[in-house]
Design brief:
The chain is of the alpha+beta class. The chain has 5 helices and 18 strands.
């Protein structure tokens, strides 16, 4: 059976970011017309939510492939948590579940600062899928911020000061707060424009974040950090944010080129288990 686009219902969730798509069972392959509608919804809304899905790992990989080449895991295998050996290639396990006192997944606990997935790579990944398998009774929400809306409303003087400049990004795998010391010895680093032009929509978005951006190329730290902090504060304003409260079976896809995201805290004694894939980027963001 092949799903068709005739039953799709696309409902925007906020003014700037987020839409829920109903009427598709992603356990079944979908036709090209349906893929095109969903892909355009992703470009239009930055974050799309497919509720009530019942997916196996194979389904997650197939759906991910509709949007491009599946991104490889960047964390060296030496630093994989033990639960990764239960996964098909290029799926990440995010979980606080512990066996023998050790988390089985990555990014197990607590809140996580706003960030863009894979901004620390030379060619960042375009998108991220996240699928909920187990969720706590409360907390562990994911907040998504529109980089487009933040760029469009940024103070003109600050925008002029930073236009054409590059941000410096660094991430120790596993860290959830800048400088928390909880990351692995393995890390990634890259330099990208502070304002990124999306290669498909041609719109500009803020492309720095509180977790991973550590400076501005060619600028002293004491000059750069106050400017970046002002951008972070603006980009995270509530009017640009969609707050997603997870339900079992939610599958989310977000565009890392024009949105950032964060995680809220949740009870340490409640289980949370998510499966993640990414979509490989095709160009450097210059």
């Amino acid at each position: 059976m092949v799903e068709t686009s005739t039953r799709l219902d696309i409902a925007p969730l906020t003014q700037h970011i987020g839409a829920e798509i109903r009427g598709v069972d992603l356990r079944q392959p979908v036709d090209d017309a349906t893929r095109d509608v969903i892909y355009q919804a992703w470009l239009d809304h930055l974050v799309i939510i497919f509720p009530d899905q019942k997916l196996e790992q194979e389904d997650l990989l197939r759906v991910s492939s509709y949007f491009g080449e599946i991104g490889a895991l960047r964390r060296p295998p030496k630093f994989f948590p033990p639960g990764f050996n239960r996964l098909l290639p290029n799926i990440m396990l995010i979980s606080n579940i512990r066996e023998n006192g050790e988390p089985i997944g990555a990014l197990p606990d607590g809140e996580m600062m706003f960030h863009h997935d894979m901004i620390h790579a030379d060619i960042p990944h375009n998108g991220t899928f996240l699928y909920s398998v187990e969720i706590p009774t409360h907390g562990g929400d994911t907040w998504f911020a529109s980089g487009y809306a933040a760029y469009d409303t940024l103070d003109p003087a600050l925008k002029a000061r930073l236009e054409g400049r590059n941000g410096i990004h660094h991430y120790n795998y596993g860290s959830t707060k800048k400088g928390d010391g909880h990351g692995t010895e393995a890390f990634g680093g890259a330099v990208h424009p502070i304002f990124r032009t999306h290669e498909e929509t041609k719109r500009k978005a803020i492309y720095v974040n509180r977790l991973m951006t550590i400076g501005i190329e060619g600028m002293a730290e004491d000059e750069a950090m106050p400017l970046l902090e002002a951008v972070f504060d603006h980009a995270e304003k509530p009017q640009f944010v969609y707050e997603h409260k997870w339900r079992l079976g939610d599958l989310l896809l977000w565009d890392n080129r024009c949105s950032s995201h964060a995680r809220t805290d949740f009870p340490a004694d409640q289980r949370r288990l998510m499966l993640r894939t990414t979509i490989q980027g095709t160009v450097k963001p210059y």
